[in-house]
Give the backbone structure.
Amino acid sequence: MELRTSKRMDRLVPSGIRKVNEKALAMERNGEKVLHFELGRPDFDTPEYIKKACILALEDGDVFYTSNLGNMELRQAVAEKLVKENNVNYCADEILVTVGLSEAVFDTLCSVLDEGDEILVPDPVWMNYLNVPKLLGAVPVTYSLREENNYQIDLEELRSKVTEKTKALVIVTPNNPTGGVLNRKTLEGIARLAVGENLLVIADEIYERLIYDGEKHISIASLPGMKERTFTLNGFSKAYSMTGWRIGYVAAPKEYIAVLNKIHQHNTTCAPSFVQRAAVTALREENNEVDEMVREYEERRNCAVKAINAVPGLSCLSPKGAFYIFINIKSLGYSSAWMAEYLLNEAKVALVPGDVFGPGGEGYLRMSFAAGMETIREGCARIAGAVKKLQDGNV
Ligand SMILES: Cc1ncc(COP(=O)(O)O)c(C=O)c1O
């Protein structure tokens, strides 16, 4: 029978990251040893104190639907965290608990974008911010994040992209895939623009804890006039190494939360009850578990950045946040897609072509350093060997 799927779905492109991953897994099934740097997935186990809280919740029989908005204790814990760590005065009524930040993106964009609305989105960026607006019939209009600008936003360019159809603006800091962290000056400029042009701001802060060199994460909602127009999106996947638990949240004025809750109800009803209980513990009983992981990431980053910059023809900035290095391959003269394919076939190293994250990513490869130090060393050595072979014309 012919497939009778909606035309709307034709607007969604499958994840380019998963495509690399699937090919790498198929190679492994054929007995090849591939080194994985493609997924944005911490390699640490979830800290023990969080797992124990989840087991306890299950043993307590915490196995039923919670309020759609989320368990009140978790909403309170999230609000307290936002007050204490992010300097924004949220209360529990302003928090919606979601199934990962991915659902938070979907609920937020569904709630604010009408067909034909424009939304300003960084280029390059994590693809959901391009795909979900398209699914909704809205138009993602990209603004550049450039290496030569240290991946800060060019405020003049951003301003030039605003039209009477622009409804919202997305920022992701620290950023996937560049690892860039927006500084206060840039954030203040964005805030002025948002207030002046009456734009909503969607701030993805999933990597806020993964930050290096003493850099500080600043929540844009904490700047004057911004809380009322900002959706702060965050979750537990990256900081607490809980990607499989699927838990996140949106913080926004409560009138917006009520609207988001309508789509959330129809979409997922609520996040899993026992996972919500464990998330309360993650926030309230954390000692130095996250800081230790961050210290380890920073060492791995230093190792990977040094090794990549030592390869003739490759270069990268040292990322201030997240766990990606964005490798500049422009001088080699090959496309990102070709180079990623070549390195996978030749060196058995899985990296993501930068153009997967938008046209601004062309000429780059994304390498995740959420991998063990030995894997990073071995991976960089394999990359160096394959690049040399290419330059020597032995391919
Ligand atoms: C910028 C960004 N936001 C959100 C997510 C997804 O978060 P979650 O696992 O909470 O859905 C990712 C995952 O890679 C990401 O890179």
Summary: The chain has a mean pLDDT of 97.
